[in-house]
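Most newcomers find our protein records easier to grasp once they have seen one. A learned vocabulary of local backbone shapes supplies the integers on the structure line. Here is such a record, shown just as it appears in the course material:
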Amino acid sequence: MRYNHCMKFDKRVACLVALCLFVATSVGAANAAQVVTADSTDYGKPTTGVLRALIVNIGTPSLPARPRNEFTASVATAAQQINQLSRGLTTVQTEYFGRDILLNDVANLCDAEFDSWQAAVSKQVDVSPYRFVTLIIPFPNDEAKQCEWDGISDSPGKFSYDFSPPSDQDSNFPNMTVAHEWGHNMTLDHMSQIICKKNGSTVSFVSRAERDKSCKKIDYSTFSFMGSESELRIAAGERSQLGWLRAGEEQEVTEGTFTLGADGPLSLLWLKNSEGDRFQIEFVKALNPNYPKEFFDIVSDDIVKVTNGWTHDGVIVKYMADYEKDASFPNGYIAHPYVIDTTPVTEIVTDSALKAGKSFVDPTGTFQIDVLEVTGASATVRIGKPTGAVAATKITITCVKGKKTRNVTGLNPQCPKGFAKI
């Protein structure tokens, strides 16, 4: 089991949190026969059907439980969001536990023994029928004691913990904290971004041997409720991982011409390069310019707000790190998606999506993606062998052995036996 922390940016939720509640408040027409029980959620199942979510309000001797009107609206909204994101495949039935539960004080709410909290709650309420169990954590008035994140969740699992301030519930923008944490419970990782350098210059991507030393992974990207998005969106790749794509809506390919739609019939392409790395390609719509965006700026090392982010439709390429295949997962695999900065001369937040006429070349020389056309509802791409751009991915290293030096050039150059790289 691992915990997924959800950061907050300037009191706005960036990595969102999970909330649930008790008092038979249901979204969607659910009858008892349809309700899915979840005695075991070790692998993130189930993700479809009617899922019950229990919200438990927590207090301690020194910190009273929150007034329920601080979070009920967010919980109801989260259930609606999951239904919308799944395109009706999932209905979350939210319920509130009838009374507040008093737990012992801890030295640091942000770093508590969450397993012990789970055990304490489980002694007072049977959590086995519920797919999600969200604990609403008291909010300290002392800013120094407030957490740097808005939530934590088991990923995968059923428990999550909401630390978000009451002000988030009154925001003019949709609070996706609750739905975000449920996403973690169902195996989703953060929608992230990766930015790489080669020979001192920022590039789109590099081969595996160079990646650890020359790439920076940023935990939050846009395009998704699992990133730093203030607009409700989900990537086709995330729908894939949760089993929310329709039959035929994703394909693993090596070459050919394909049209990717915003809502099918084909939404997602998978590619694999010669090093075994996996990539996803999908069409994305421009974001609503009325929603300000917040993202991590690699240059200033700070959170930056932009009002003109993602102003065009296009095609994004994602590197699927930590790919693991197992039939126990909702759709047979898990992975951590990183949006590749296909236009590295500008900030990733403004134009990562490829326009018509643009290309992306895998640094190993396995494939090239050419965007042939972009419309308001789809994009047509051609996948094939690189057509001359491979040479640009070659690099030269210098190797030394005593007084001897030797330059080695290639896609993934290695020093000869007995030589050391300098």
The two ends are 41 Å apart (CA to CA). Confidence is low (pLDDT under 50) at residues 7-40, 169-173, 389-393. Residues 231 and 288 are 7 Å apart (CA to CA). The helical segments are 72-85, 114-124, 177-185, 208-214, 236-242, 348-351.
